[in-house]
């Protein structure tokens, strides 16, 4: 079904045919706009921004670019096209028809999954609300706002499911999604990572690289769900999410590119020398990677999890690209994971494969992150330097799972608590690192100009030149 932009709420779910649902969502809409105006991007509500808006849900032509003030962005409800032949792809009901309604026995678990996913979307907008004030270019400012409006749309995606399929509980949960706020001591966001403000652009690129990529894997798992409206919602969200990760990996590549230019010009890899020239030294970038990667890994949950086993058995949450696996039931299978033995050593732990689903998803994520690190290492090697960036071990600095609270170094070797404390000063961003990165955060808002701590992008957005006025400040 085509997206109907004549409606107050653009949608391709036939909202006009369901008056009570339409009314309920039209009631929620002004609350959303109030939230956007108070907790969305600070100081830029009147700016004219070059943004893309979905116009159809097929692979091509779903993005229409135009200039819009953010509060007038057409947030709506877009699901991927239905596939009548699709059957349940995994778990105990493998091969049976997909569900068009929520089965009673899965109701509370599905609601929880949707609420948890939904909560991260507005949370990230709140975390990033002050970033615009220190944008390194208008191109980057536009990128930030594109991410922000789409996270707002992802909130709509989850709120639609809550309203349409979960009755009064769903409507209450939709309200709560606007009542919790990132960092609010009384009503914080559900996941702790989403309560930390993101106050510099290096962190923003790390967030869109590492944390949005966790989001991608969660959405890929939900896109396999037997609950068809959830699966199709997430399938469409993934097309938007891809651009957020593009902003992350190209942003980091541009930071590294500039650092290497400075290192070559000065013939030095000395961090102080690089900093004095206004670029971010590679050891600082490594420390930011250590920090952001380890906190993103926790988002996948414990290595073994009875909840994960229930989600898989029930057909609620599968593995990313479930079709590429041979066995979709995973009954009677086991996997062996490494766990600390509590005496400073490591032991093998053999568990039912269904209980280790979080680990299967996390491993795929780690592999994908590493592809980009190797690309950046190629840039460093080509520039003639020996430093290599690396992901820390998944055991490092974990707060969830087997390795929670077990002190290890970034290579995953178990060490003493004191050595860990001391080591973290070297492995994680220090106050001085953060102060240095913050000192670089000065707004650059002249069209075509880019801050000196990162290279310009390779090309503009949607074929526009680099000096295009991506954001016209009010
Ligand atoms: Fe999102
Ligand atoms: Fe995102």
Compile the SSE list and pairings.
Blueprint: H1 19-39, E1 48-54, E2 63-69, H2 107-127, H3 138-165, H4 167-179, H5 201-222, H6 228-266, H7 271-276, H8 282-298, H9 306-314, E3 334-340, E4 346-352, H10 357-382, H11 417-427, H12 431-439, E5 471-472
Helix pairs in contact: 1-3, 1-4, 2-3, 2-4, 3-4, 3-6, 5-6, 5-8, 5-10, 6-10
The structure holds fe (ii) ion (2 copies).
Describe the protein's architecture and organization.
The chain is mainly alpha-helical and 474 residues long. Helices cover 47% and strands 6% of the residues. The strands form 2 sheets. Strands 2-1-5 form a 3-stranded antiparallel β-sheet. Helix 5 (201-222) packs antiparallel against helix 10 (357-382). Residues 121, 151, 154, 215, 241 line the site of one fe (ii) ion.
Small-molecule components bound: fe (ii) ion
Task: Please give the number of β-strands.
Answer: 5
Overall structural class, as computed from helix and strand content, comes to: mainly alpha
Which shape, going by the Cα principal axes?
Answer: globular
Q: Order of SSEs, N→C?
A: HEEHHHHHHHHEEHHHE
Major sheet details: 3 strands, antiparallel
Q: In percent terms, what proportion of residues is strand? A: 5-15%
The number of helical runs is 12
Segments where pLDDT lies below 50 for 5+ residues? Answer: none
Q: Largest beta sheet: what is the strand line-up? A: 2-1-5
The radius of gyration is 23 Å
Query: Ends: how far apart?
Result: 37 Å
């Amino acid at each position: 079904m085509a997206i109907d932009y004549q409606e107050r709420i653009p949608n391709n779910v036939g909202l006009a045919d369901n008056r009570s649902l339409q009314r309920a969502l039209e009631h929620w809409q002004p609350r959303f706009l109030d939230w956007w105006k108070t907790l969305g991007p600070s100081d830029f509500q009147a700016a004219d921004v070059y943004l893309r808006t979905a116009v159809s849900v097929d692979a091509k032509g779903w993005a229409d670019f135009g200039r819009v003030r953010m509060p007038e962005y057409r947030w709506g409800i877009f699901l991927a096209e239905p596939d009548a032949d699709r059957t349940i792809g995994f778990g105990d009901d493998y091969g049976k028809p997909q569900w068009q309604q929520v089965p009673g026995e899965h109701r509370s678990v599905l609601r929880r999954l949707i609420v948890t996913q939904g909560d991260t979307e507005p949370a990230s907008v709140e975390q990033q609300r002050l970033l615009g004030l220190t944008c390194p270019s208008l191109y980057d400012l536009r990128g930030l706002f594109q991410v922000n409006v789409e996270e707002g749309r992802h909130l709509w995606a989850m709120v639609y499911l809550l309203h349409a399929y979960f009755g009064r509980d769903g409507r209450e949960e939709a309200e709560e999604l606007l009542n919790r706020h990132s960092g609010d001591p009384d009503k914080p966001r559900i996941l702790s990572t989403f309560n930390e403000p993101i106050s510099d652009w290096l962190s923003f690129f790390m967030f869109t690289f590492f944390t949005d990529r966790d989001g991608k894997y969660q959405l890929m798992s939900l896109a396999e769900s037997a609950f068809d409206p959830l699966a199709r919602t997430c399938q469409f969200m993934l097309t938007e999410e891809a651009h957020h990760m593009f902003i992350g990996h190209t942003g980091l590549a541009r930071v590294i590119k500039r650092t290497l230019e400075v290192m070559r010009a000065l013939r030095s890899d000395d961090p102080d020398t690089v900093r004095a020239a206004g670029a971010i030294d590679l050891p600082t970038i490594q420390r930011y990677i250590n920090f952001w990667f380890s906190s993103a890994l926790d988002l996948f949950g414990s290595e073994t999890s009875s909840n994960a086993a229930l989600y898989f058995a029930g057909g609620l949450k599968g593995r990313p690209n479930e079709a590429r696996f041979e066995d979709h039931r995973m009954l009677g299978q086991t996997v062996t994971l490494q766990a600390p033995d509590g005496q400073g050593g490591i032991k093998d732990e053999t568990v039912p494969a269904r209980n280790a689903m979080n680990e299967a998803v996390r491993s795929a994520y780690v592999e994908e992150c590493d592809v980009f690190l190797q690309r950046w290492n190629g840039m460093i090697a080509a520039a003639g330097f020996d430093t290599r960036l690396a992901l820390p071990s998944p055991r490092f600095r974990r707060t969830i799972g087997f390795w929670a609270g077990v002190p290890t170094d970034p290579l995953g070797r178990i060490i003493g608590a004191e050595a860990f404390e001391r080591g973290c000063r070297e492995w994680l961003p220090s106050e001085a690192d953060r102060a240095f990165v913050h000192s670089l955060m000065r707004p650059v808002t002249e069209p075509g100009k880019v801050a000196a701590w990162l290279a310009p992008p390779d090309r503009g957005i949607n074929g526009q030149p680099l000096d295009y006025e991506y954001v016209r400040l009010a």
